[in-house]
Design goal:
With 379 residues, this protein is α/β, with parallel strands linked by helices. The chain has a single domain, classed as Alkaline Phosphatase, subunit A (3-Layer(aba) Sandwich). It is 35% helix and 22% strand. The chain has 13 helices and 14 strands. The strands form 3 sheets. Strands 5-6-4-3-7-1-8-13-2-14 form a 10-stranded mixed sheet, sandwiched between helices. It has a two-stranded antiparallel sheet with strand order 9-12. A two-stranded antiparallel sheet has the order 10-11. Helix 9 links the parallel strand 5 and strand 6. The N terminus is likely disordered. The structure holds magnesium ion and zinc ion. Magnesium ion binds next to helix 5. The site of magnesium ion has 9 residues, from helix 5.
């Protein structure tokens, strides 16, 4: 019975190594029984595979995207349209339902659907949203508000004040302090224990003692990265992770690179590349945090592609006037000023990351987050 002795030893070694794998933070991604304590969801609005590919040609450093091992694809149609808008797509992520274009946190029948911020708050998890648009814009709004139309910025601002959000940063000040109802929501935010800044991000040491923090740094959208916004997204990401994790808190944060979509709409490749590279920098901050922490799941995806962007070989003219494709140079082109229906990549890192492999509907991002975290939806 020599062989069974060897077999027993092998089993014992396997069991032992599995046990130590549970402690080894680098190995947690392969252990489904370990639920992530924190979730960082990064959304680049209007970003398909080609936009991401541009970073591999036009970013001076290796893109942060290259750090992921778990990659999937999502199908993005909304409940009524083949081509989604950002409201329906963000509602799919935040609430797990397909809805009509323009909806914010409501189902196709316009009824409210519980979102990730509400669900996370039920488990005593801190929450945050960051965007380079107005903080009331469709993508961030879907994570804390419920409105039948994305155009209702002032209603959405009011709902943000009454939401469970602990940290937010972006534009949209006018929807708080220059409202048709003449209310000043900054006062309400202060009453709800927010420290507020409308000029710049504060240093962590200056907000550490506050329970909540709000940064409204533009009247509506923030400036493009190349026109004064600078490294806001990277800095806000860094600040949110420190702030939301203080006192050993667990957290959920949604971080949006909002303007890649706008560059696509305006068919402006230079704008697109700078915004994409800026978003990629924020991914780096999230991954660095997750690597160190070991209990944080990072998910990076987009709501849809915008512009029908291509990295084509540059069209050039030869001496006889005929056109040819020069394969040594990229000529960035667009096929539309609207959104497209192409499948969208999903990148995941950390405990539960393997769950995000495969091809699935955009609503499953929500389902998978709940599955790996064990967050309960409540009633
Ligand atoms: Mg957006
Ligand atoms: Zn768009």
């Amino acid at each position: 019975m020599k062989n069974s002795g060897i077999a027993f030893t092998l089993i014992a070694i396997t069991l032992l190594s599995c046990k130590s794998g549970g402690v080894d933070q680098k190995g947690v991604a392969d252990h489904k029984e370990i639920a992530p304590k924190n979730v960082i969801l990064l959304i680049s609005d209007g970003t398909g595979l080609t936009q991401i590919s541009s970073a591999f040609f036009f970013k001076e450093t290796l893109p942060q995207y290259s750090r992921f091992k778990h990659i999937g694809l999502i199908n993005t149609p909304s409940s009524r349209q083949n081509v989604t808008d950002s409201g329906a797509a963000a509602t799919a992520f935040a609430c797990g339902v397909k809805t009509y274009n323009g909806a914010i946190g409501v189902a196709d029948d316009s009824t409210d659907v519980k979102n990730l911020v509400e669900i996370a708050s039920l488990q005593n998890i801190k929450t945050g949203v960051i965007a380079t648009s107005s903080i009331t814009h469709a993508t961030p709004a879907s994570f804390y508000a419920h409105t039948v139309s994305r155009a209702l910025d002032e209603d959405i601002a009011m709902q943000l004040v009454h939401s469970e959000i602990d940290f937010f940063a972006g534009g949209g000040l006018q929807f708080f302090n220059k409202r048709k109802d003449e209310q000043n929501l900054l006062i309400e935010l202060e009453e709800k224990q927010f420290t507020i800044d409308t000029l710049r991000l504060k240093a962590y040491s200056n907000i550490r003692s506050n329970s909540k923090a709000a940064f409204l740094l533009a009247n509506n959208a923030m400036a493009p990265a190349s026109e004064g916004r600078g490294n806001f997204l990277l800095k806000a990401t860094e600040l949110s992770l420190k702030f939301l994790s203080k006192d050993q808190s667990n957290f959920f944060v949604m971080i949006e690179g909002s303007q890649i979509d706008w560059a696509g709409h305006s068919n402006n490749s230079e704008y697109l590349v700078t915004e994409l590279n800026d978003f990629d920098d924020a991914i780096g901050i999230a991954l660095d945090y997750a690597e160190k922490d070991g209990n944080t799941l990072v998910i990076v995806t987009s709501d849809h592609e915008t512009g029908g962007f291509t990295l084509a070989a540059k069209t050039k003219k030869s001496e006889d006037g005929s056109e040819y494709s020069d394969y040594s140079e990229i000529g960035m082109t667009f096929s539309t000023t609207g959104h497209t229906a192409t499948l969208i990549p999903v990148f995941a890192y950390g405990p539960g990351a393997e769950e995000f492999n495969g091809i699935y509907e955009n609503t499953e991002i929500f389902d998978k987050i709940l599955k790996v975290t064990n967050w309960t939806r409540g009633n």
